UniProtKB/TrEMBL annotation:
Keyword terms, alphabetized: Membrane, Transmembrane, Transmembrane helix
Protein name: ABC-2 type transport system permease protein
UniProt xrefs under InterPro entries: ABC-2_transporter-like
Source species taxonomy: Bacteria, Bacillati, Bacillota, Bacilli, Bacillales
Keyword Cell inner membrane appears in the UniProt entry: no
Parts of the chain that traverse the membrane: 25-47, 117-136, 142-173, 205-224, 230-251
Keyword Membrane attached: yes
Pfam families: ABC2_membrane_6
Length: 263
């Protein structure tokens, strides 16, 4: 609880700093949301033209897209600079965090806090529309609402774990931007759409080596399509906890071998 209170204070301080430039703050939020809207509209045009994609309707694909968007926004809001660890390693800014009387990861998470309000609003609005359509079609029951909340939280934890694992590799390689483009950005973008549209080797990659499919696609098979059972939700949560735990372990090993830049 002490560290949570400390994190809260650091986040408030970071927000105050960023709000010194209010126009830039709100413009960035709006542009981020606009990019997400355009991405989904491209998918919507395809689905409207052909009716479905590998058996997935527009509402089902929208559910996948929306839950992952909210999970990503939650992760990037709470731990934005984990994704930018390379900058700290190259410039020596990580040394400043090592001097603070708080855990280094907590200090990094609170740096440049970015509340992605645009992505949250866009994701929530899209999720509400798609769930309403699925309710009217009889595909969902009221149990889908709490299960969806669990999926969003589990997805955020999984994305955080994958991001943390990738970032900690920087303690050995330093330059990890291209690796992050693959494990975080490209992999997450891929599972915004039904996994069945990809070849089997890629499906296997997104289920094992980079298990980002458990952030949305796997639990959604049960929630919106009635496939499998509750064990898919449990398995997704277990994978998220396992990946995040491995990320914390790797972080400790990386911090132990970190050598200051001398700056």
């Amino acid at each position: 609880m002490k560290w949570l209170r400390m994190y809260k204070l650091l986040v408030i301080a970071s927000l105050r700093s960023r709000m010194q430039y209010k126009f830039n703050f709100w413009l960035t939020a709006a542009m981020t949301a606009l990019v997400s809207v355009v991405e989904f509209l491209l998918l919507a045009v395809i689905l409207t033209k052909f009716g479905h994609i590998k058996g997935w309707s527009l509402a089902e694909a929208g559910y996948l897209y929306a839950t992952l968007t909210i999970s990503k926004a939650l992760y990037r809001s709470l731990a934005s600079d984990v994704h930018h660890l390379e900058k700290y390693l190259v410039s020596g800014e990580l040394d400043n965090l090592l001097l603070r009387p708080i855990p280094v990861l907590l200090g990094l998470m609170s740096q440049n806090f970015s509340f992605r309000i645009g992505e949250f609003l866009q994701g929530i609005a899209l999720l509400a529309i798609c769930m309403r359509m699925l309710f009217l079609e009889g595909q969902l029951t009221w149990a889908a609402i709490p299960l969806t909340v669990v999926v969003i939280g589990s997805g955020a934890l999984l994305l955080f774990g994958i991001g943390l694992l990738t970032a900690t590799i920087g303690f050995w390689l330093t330059r990890i931007e291209q690796l992050q483009n693959i494990t975080e950005d490209a992999a997450r973008t891929a599972v915004q759409y039904p996994l069945t549209i990809y070849p089997r080797w890629m499906q296997g990659l997104l289920l094992t080596f980079i298990p980002v499919a458990f952030a949305s696609y796997i639990p959604s098979l049960y929630i919106i399509r009635g496939q499998g059972g509750l064990w898919l939700i449990a398995a997704s949560l277990a994978v998220a906890v396992a990946v995040f735990g491995l990320g914390l372990l790797m972080w400790r090993l990386g911090i132990a071998r970190y050598q200051s830049t001398g700056s």
